[in-house]
């Protein structure tokens, strides 16, 4: 049965803008996030505390956070790859932090310059510090439906990383089809494998739309009882280390699809479309 309500996690300001060739000015990021809030999005990933050498587009995350309005009904989340990132996130008063692992060794190396096991070892003290600080911790697994370097990825490999992240204290694990390689059958098989080790209520879907299959893949997983979806306004997004990956699935498309299924999201499609026009205009590109 389909869920009656879906929580959308807006990742455009982070996953979208991290992959833009130009660095968007801080004021534009802040206005985008304000517009997303006005559209009813409450859980918003606003940036990352990573090496500015690796991802210069996110270098102003602390400045963005300092200018954001309060978010009383939701959370501003940031990605952190290590304790250094966590300390910066705490100083910026992040409402949530997320660590990001991969189900494929080659992608782990390319994205965060270490093996999967090393990454998990690096996240353990972050999880500990987050727990002490009372900051909710989210976990990502990348390449769950395929890797740009290794090709196929086994559902068991995804489940294994997901299990470690949950054991560390993540409240939710988000399954990333980083390069939009999956099909509905693959997506279902992956979620079914993860659901053996993680409660369905704690699984989120993070699908990139490289081949236009993200909505179909999401639909397949909703039928398995998953009810959290990551999406990016205007379909912004991608990952700088997955060449050829265009956007995350567009929040506008997800909201429309869910409405068609009679599933509540709490998001105002008109104001969401305005936020999409605002950011595509700022980027000098056609609206999604
Ligand atoms: P490294 O070079 O192995 O790290 O990078 P290091 O510890 O040797 O440090 C190198 C330099 O980075 C040092 O500075 C550190 O201080 C600095 P230097 O002495 O050379 O001047 N550094 C930092 N600076 C700021 N913040 C930090 C930090 N840590 C170290 N937290 C590292 C390892 C992880 C840092 C690097 O590889 C990195 O920053 N990677 C970021 C990759 C990234 O952001 N990728 C995109 C996000 S993941 C994604 O998009 C996928 C997702 O959407 C899900 C999906 O779609 O699948 C989540
Ligand atoms: Mg992503």
TrEMBL record:
Q: Which InterPro entries match?
A: Aldolase_TIM, HMGL, PYR_CT
Asked if the Swiss-Prot or TrEMBL record annotates the protein with the keyword RNA-binding, the reply is no
| Name of the protein described by the UniProt record | hydroxymethylglutaryl-CoA lyase
Outline the extent of the Pyruvate carboxyltransferase domain: 6-273
Organism, by scientific name, is: Methylobacterium tarhaniae
Q: What class of enzyme is it?
A: lyase
Report the sequence similarity comment from the record: Belongs to the HMG-CoA lyase family.
Q: What PROSITE patterns would the database entry show? A: PYR_CT
Q: Return the NCBIfam families for the record.
A: PRK05692.1
Residue spans making up a coiled coil are: none
Q: In which pathway does it act?
A: Metabolic intermediate metabolism; (S)-3-hydroxy-3-methylglutaryl-CoA degradation; acetoacetate from (S)-3-hydroxy-3-methylglutaryl-CoA: step 1/1
Name any Gene Ontology BP term: L-leucine catabolic process
Pfam families recorded = HMGL-like
């Amino acid at each position: 049965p389909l869920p009656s309500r879906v929580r959308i996690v807006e990742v455009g300001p982070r996953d979208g803008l991290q992959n833009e060739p130009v660095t968007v000015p801080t004021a534009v990021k802040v206005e985008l996030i304000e517009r997303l809030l006005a559209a009813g999005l409450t859980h918003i990933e606003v940036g990352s505390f990573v090496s500015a050498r690796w991802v210069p587009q996110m270098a102003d995350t602390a400045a963005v956070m300092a200018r954001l309005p309060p978010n009383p009904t939701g959370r501003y989340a940031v990605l952190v790859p290590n304790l250094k990132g966590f300390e910066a996130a705490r100083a910026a008063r992040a409402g949530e932090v997320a660590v990001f692992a991969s189900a494929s060794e080659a992608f782990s190396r390319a994205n965060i310059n270490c093996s999967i096991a090393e990454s998990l070892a690096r996240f353990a003290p972050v999880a500990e510090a987050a727990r002490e600080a009372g900051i909710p911790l989210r976990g990502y697994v990348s390449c769950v439906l395929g890797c740009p370097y290794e090709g196929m990825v086994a559902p068991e490999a995804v489940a294994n990383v997901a299990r470690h992240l949950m054991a560390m204290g993540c409240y939710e694990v988000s399954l990333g089809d980083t390069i939009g390689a999956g099909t509905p059958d693959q997506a279902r098989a992956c979620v079914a494998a993860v659901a053996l080790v993680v409660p369905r209520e704690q699984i989120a879907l993070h699908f990139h739309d490289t081949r236009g299959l993200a909505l179909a893949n999401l639909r397949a997983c909703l039928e398995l009882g998953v009810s959290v979806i990551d999406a990016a306004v205007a379909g912004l997004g991608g990952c700088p280390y997955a060449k050829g990956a265009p956007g995350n699935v567009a929040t506008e498309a997800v909201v429309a699809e869910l409405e068609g299924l009679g599933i509540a999201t709490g998001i105002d499609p008109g104001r969401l479309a305005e936020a999409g026009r605002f950011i595509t205009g700022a980027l000098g590109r056609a609206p999604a």
